[in-house]
Amino acid sequence: MSAHVRGGVGGRVAYYRSVMRPKMSQQDLANAAHLSLGTICKIEQGERGVGDSALETIADALGVDPFLLLFGRNAPRTAVHAALPTLSATLAMQEIPEDGPVRPLPELRTDVEATVDWRLTAHYTRIARRLPDLLAELARARHRFSGPDRAALAALLVTAYRSADAAAFEAGAWDLSARLVDLMRHVVPDADDPLLTASVAYVRTETFFAASAHAADLRALEQALDAAPAPTTADRSAARGALHMRAAVIAGRAFDLAATQMHLAEARALADQLPEAVYHGTAFGPDSVRVHEVSVAVSLGHDHVGKALEVARKGKPPTSLPAERRSGFYIDLARAHLWSGQAAGHAFEALKVARHIAPQHTREHPWVREDAGTLRRLERADSEALTSFAEWCSAV
User: Which stretches of the chain are assigned E, i.e. beta strand?
Assistant: First the structure.
């Protein structure tokens, strides 16, 4: 490995800029990280330290984990994993929060809305690092507020739990994810919002998914659909559509073709009536359904790869879709190409696109590690680039 890697954070920034992204100049990195060229030069030369915020933006621009820049290849874990114990400790004190300040509701809402943006853009490091303090403050506020403010606070708390769950689930901390889902289900009745209840049911499926209990997962989703409000408004239609969309994927994992087709048809019918948008924290609309059609086909197995590739050829997800969803499309597409047996190079290209869109989501995805390892064994793509990618996602 280059001596740069042993030269501290700045040396590792220079190394990954030049090796993992060969065509990335210092100016390219400065532009991508929204920093000045002078700042990048000083960081790489060791003349300037790097704060947490700058480290995250540089790591995102390079497509690596911040821990890799801090510790190199000897990093024992990712930055998300490092922050999870603090998050877990915070959750243990939700019912008996420590004394401390509580800001006005509008300020809390602004911070919670920021975590939704981080979730949709797959910035899990920011979530894992910054959610513990916010969750602690929200817990204190919930014990102090009353009346309408208490319902609004419950909604904020559920939304913040969902953001924290995204980081935990993607990091493979499934017990912590299950704990967060339980907290969501415990608090959501206080919000008195049926659409928020439907979104919690959407997230709850992760608990079954982690256990590969797909049949039980599908039953839970169908129960949630029975309880969901009638689709009389855009928000209500989107809530039902998202549940159908998720149910189609789970039915695919359960190899229930009839249920898969039924839920996809319902999701498509609802999506055709709505503009693509984020409704109650979940993207839904025609583009989201098309992305899920690829996911469903891959979930059903090798025999349905042709359908996945056919849907993908009709159009790629627009940049207006959340980064997490777009990267998921390319991860699914990579597997479809790999399974086709004819386009391993296309599979690697899809994985690289996924990394460019949402590096943290891509790096933590188990399919990425599996498929990068398979591609490396096949040696059908550029060996140096593929080896670097496989090392990046811990496939080797």
Answer: 277-279, 282-284
